[in-house]
Every structure is written in structure tokens, then in C-alpha cells.
Design brief:
single chain, two-stranded antiparallel ribbon, globular, 3 helices, Cytidine Deaminase, domain 2, 156 residues
């Protein structure tokens, strides 16, 4: 951040610069929870997925094409802290329209916990106020091709 010198008051204020750089012109389109799972599967560190919980957010444009994926937090074996401000910073920076959430269950238990449902509802409500849509919350297992879509199961 650059500092701006305001001559009238002799104080300094930090200048904010918002940037986004795309990696490729061809973006993946999300049309199902399987598509979302496949994108998340490509970014999760499968050396860690059975040992610690991680939480990601995927950001989509109005055409459901992936703008980017953000690692929001890493935790312990049974939980991770999700700060909504971090989730929404990514969405605002990318000028996203949709958000798909994801975390893993190191235990392999594919049942959404009460905490999973509560944070999804909280993020959905916050997103609504900012004119984003939370489209899904995908829970990954350490086992290949096993996941739970909270949207498909009508859990939020």
C-alpha cells in the first residue's frame, strides 16, 4: 500500500489498490455439484486432507464460470475457523456473483454437522446483503470421489 500525504492535515492515509489477474482465458463452468467437487479436488492438498480440516471458497461470474478459489482457513483434525470477512473479501475483489463453499472431513464422515449448516446459513445471509449467492457447500472426504453437496441434500 502506498501512503498518501494530505498536506492540509499533515497526516498519512493508506491507499487501497484492488487487483485481480486471471491465469487463463478459458474458465471452467460449474453446472453441477460434481463439477464443483472436481475443481475443489484439484486445489485441495491431498497430503493433508486426512489430517486437518481446510475451508475453501470458489468464486463464480454470472455465467457460473470459475474466477478463482481461495483457501480461507486451515484448522485441526475436527474443525477450522471460518471468518466471513475473508470469504467476502475474495468475492468483492473478484467482483463475483456466486460463491461455492467447501471444506473437508478428515474422519471421512460425510454427514454435515450442525456447525457446517450454521456457518453455511450465516454466509448465505451475509452474501445476500452483498448481492452474492451462496450456491453450494461441498464437503470432501479423504477417499477419492466421495463428497456431500449440501445444496443437493437441501441442507441450507
Amino acid at each position: 500500500m502506498k501512503k498518501l500525504n494530505l498536506d492540509a492535515t499533515n497526516s498519512e492515509v493508506s491507499e487501497i489498490e484492488i487487483t485481480y489477474k486471471t491465469k487463463s482465458a478459458e474458465k471452467t463452468k460449474i453446472m453441477s455439484s460434481r463439477d464443483a467437487y472436481n475443481v475443489f479436488k484439484s486445489v485441495y492438498d491431498f497430503n493433508k486432507i486426512a489430517h486437518k480440516e481446510m475451508f475453501y471458497a470458489m468464486y463464480l461470474n454470472r455465467n457460473n464460470k470459475v474466477l478463482g478459489v481461495l483457501l480461507v482457513s486451515e484448522g485441526g483434525t475436527s474443525s477450522t475457523v471460518v471468518d466471513p470477512k475473508i470469504v467476502f473479501q475474495g468475492a468483492l475483489k473478484l467482483n463475483a456473483s456466486g460463491i461455492i463453499l467447501s471444506h473437508n472431513h478428515p474422519s471421512g464422515n460425510m454427514k454435515a454437522s450442525n456447525e457446517d449448516i450454521a456457518i453455511t446459513k450465516k454466509l448465505k445471509e451475509g452474501a445476500r446483503l452483498l448481492d452474492f449467492s451462496v450456491l453450494d457447500h461441498v464437503i470432501l472426504s479423504p477417499e477419492e470421489n466421495i463428497y456431500l453437496s449440501m445444496a443437493d441434500e437441501c441442507l441450507f
